[in-house]
Amino acid sequence: MKTVLQKLVFLMTFLPITVMAQWVQIGQTLYGPEGPEGATTTSQFSETSAISADGTVMAIGHVTANEYHTQVFRLVSGEWVQIGNNIIGLLFYTG
Asked: Mean of the pLDDT values across residues 58-77?
């Protein structure tokens, strides 16, 4: 009976915190190479993404035509700034 009570107290303590938690966007909205319109029609920005442990560097991969683009961004003064050029690879389909 004591463990059930402990679990109930735990849920009553932390449930309001998780229910009220909200996501907050950091930096501006990023779009694919075609801009806001093209990002929803001609490219898939982002098919893959990764972010550093501290949340200040991220890599985004997306497809345009027959190429796979990867862009790396760093958070600088609240804005995402691209690091270097796009990394471009060709897509090969077998079948």
From this structure: 85
Write the DSSP assignment of 60-78 as a string of letters: EEEEETTEEEEEEEEEETT
Q: Please say if the pLDDT value at position 23 is more than 70.
A: yes
Residue 45, classed as helix, strand or coil, is strand
CB 67 within 8 A of CB 90: yes
Determine contact, residues 64/87, Cβ cutoff 8 Å. Answer: no
What predicted TM-score, i.e. pTM, was given to this entire model?
0.60
Residue 29 to residue 34: CA distance in whole angstroms: 14
* Closest to 75 measured CA to CA, from 93, 54, 91: 54
Domain ranges of the chain: 29-95
Record the tokens describing residue 46, joined without a space.
Answer: 């982002």
